[in-house]
Amino acid sequence: MGKHVDIRKQRVRDDFAKAAASYDSAAVLQHEVCERTLERVDMLKLQPRLVLDIGTATGRSLKGLASRFPNSSMVACDLALPMLLWCRRHQDAGCAGALVCNDAEQLPFADDSVDLIFSSSTFQWCANLSRVFSECMRVLRLDGVLIFSTFGPDTLHQLRDSFARLDDYRHVHEFVDMHHIGDLLLAERFADPVVDMEMIDIQYQSLSQLLQDLKNTGSRGKFGPAQPTAPGLMGRQKYNALVRAYEDFRLDSGLLPASYEVIYGYARKSADPVLEAADDHEIRVPVEHLQGRQR
């Protein structure tokens, strides 16, 4: 069974819909992660007929993919329709491709129809990541490739720790760890899965700037009743206590860090699956696939 994160899908859709116009100006981290994920595409020896971009948002990833694969058909999907409309209005017509508003857990595409699936900074918002990987496996053609980036548990740990001093609510999204993501890829019988991570810090003058960026990119937590994080909503006294708690993380440079654990993943759909599922629910790797393997 995949790990189910307590996410209200409607909040995901609503928050990103509201953030469509403000996203690009605030998404410094998301844009950087997108560029680094696109660089991993450059390492592929692949000439895809059809490329699927999951969680395209305002279309930065779609533009990068179109420039790399000018002869490929592009399909972009996103849960929030206003994001897709923004993409259509502001991206070059040549890279806009087909825009589809849908849930990554229920891809509206035929089996064995896609050569490359790309997704940047999206899978962390999916309630059932196992289901997402299952859908990716289904729609990929043989030897098709999945490349993605998402975020791990150390993301925004400073903000999480600061809130923990104030109350027992969850204010920061709970992210799935790298090892569990790797296990989910193996469970869906992807071949040659590779998962790695790096930490990226974004630095701010004040906590209010960080909170505003989270709002403007639609990146606030998506669980239960919304816990307000703005001074006028959460109460001035509580907000000031949060500011004081976060001050403990201020750097010698005078700036406040916001850390992101960025997880990158690669996997391939193979005609000869490496994995064998045993009756006791273990996953066994045939020894012939281990000899001489390069890691």
Sheet/helix structural class: alpha/beta
Question: What do we call the CATH homologous superfamily of the domain at 9-154 and 174-200 and 262-286?
Answer: Vaccinia Virus protein VP39
Look at the structure and give the mean pLDDT: 86
Number of helices: 12
- Principal-axis shape equals globular
The first-level CATH class of the domain at 9-154 and 174-200 and 262-286 is given as Alpha Beta
Series of secondary-structure elements, N-terminal to C-terminal = HHHEHEHHEEHEHHEHHHEEE
Largest sheet: 7 strands, mixed
Enter the CATH topology name of the domain at 9-154 and 174-200 and 262-286: Rossmann fold
Helix content: 25-40%
Determine the strand fraction and express it as a percent band: 15-25%
Assigned CATH architecture of the domain at 9-154 and 174-200 and 262-286 = 3-Layer(aba) Sandwich
Widest beta sheet: strand line-up:
3-2-1-4-5-7-6
Q: Low-confidence segments, ≥5 residues, pLDDT <50?
A: 1-6, 275-295
